[in-house]
Amino acid sequence: MSATFRVSAFGDEIAPDLDEQLTTLRDLNIGCLDLRGAWGKNVLHMDDDDLARVAQVSRNYGVKVACIGSPIGKSPIEEPIDFEVGNLRRIFKAGDVVGCRNVRLFSFYPPDTSTNALYDQYVETAIERLAVLTDMAANEGFMLLLENEKGIVTDTLSRCEAVVKAISAVRTGRHFRFIWDSANFIQVGEERVVERGWPMLGDAIGYVHIKDAVLSDGHVVPAGEGDGQLPLLLAHLVEIGYQGTVALEPHLKVAGHSTGFSGADGMRMAADALRKVMAEVGCVEVW
């Protein structure tokens, strides 16, 4: 099977206004949107009218929502799971309205995030909590996509592998997969991240976030200009016949706690850098 790649992007990295987001995406010949925010609202806090507007505006521009960039799991691991159960129900409603079954989520904040030296003790709890959410996704026909991220339990390659394999062993892969983000791994000090990480997580990848970073200080750079081994990652995906999305999350101007910003010019730079790497590797882009 030949590999094909759809390019998406986090629109709120371009501008708060959805029309501005989608105008830029169309100018860049990007047909998909990762919906994290619009009009200053996170997708979790959009009301029914907001969601209906997202759906209509996206149709007007011919852009498909590829993933709901939810903040689910960016919450304390010791908080009752009912909090995120309620949030996930709301995100499922958002997915129904905008026509998207993919939901990004995280694996919770340990009590002390000043160091990740003690995160291993929370792996089992993270697995238990994510299993509850995965069962919800199975019942509603959604795919949960777990992103690696600094400050949460699944920050390192080894903890990502432990959590993903534990859930995949007892839950169907049709409802839980992994989002690979090289820059986030680099920012917690992982070296040779794809070289080491592909044997651990390659068969679990269901989505890819495209941003790169420099190991020496963690600052974010366009794809292929850092230590995230993105050419090698895309080459591996080509080899296995990947049929999926690579989503630009450049963070070239601001890398915040729950969002990032690049502006229209930054998104253009990020898209050009990604497509340069894709061309070098031999990726086939589809709309």
List the helices and strands and how they pair.
Layout: E1 4-10, H1 18-27, E2 32-35, E3 37-38, E4 41-42, H2 48-61, E5 64-68, H3 82-98, E6 102-105, H4 123-140, E7 143-147, H5 157-170, E8 176-181, H6 182-186, H7 193-201, E9 205-210, E10 212-213, E11 220-221, H8 230-239, E12 243-248, E13 254-255, E14 260-261, H9 263-281, E15 285-286
Parallel strand pairs: 1-2, 1-12, 1-15, 2-5, 6-7, 7-8, 8-9, 9-12
Antiparallel strand pairs: 3-4, 10-11, 13-14
Helix pairs in contact: 1-2, 3-4, 4-5, 5-7, 8-9
Structural overview:
The protein is of the alpha/beta class. The chain has a single domain (4-286), classed as TIM Barrel (Alpha-Beta Barrel). 40% of the residues lie in helices and 20% in strands. The strands form 4 sheets. Strands 1, 2, 5, 6, 7, 8, 9, 12 and 15 form a 9-stranded parallel sheet that branches. The chain has a two-stranded antiparallel sheet with strand order 3-4. The protein has a two-stranded antiparallel ribbon with strand order 10-11. A hairpin with a 2-residue loop joins β3 and β4. α3 packs parallel to α4.
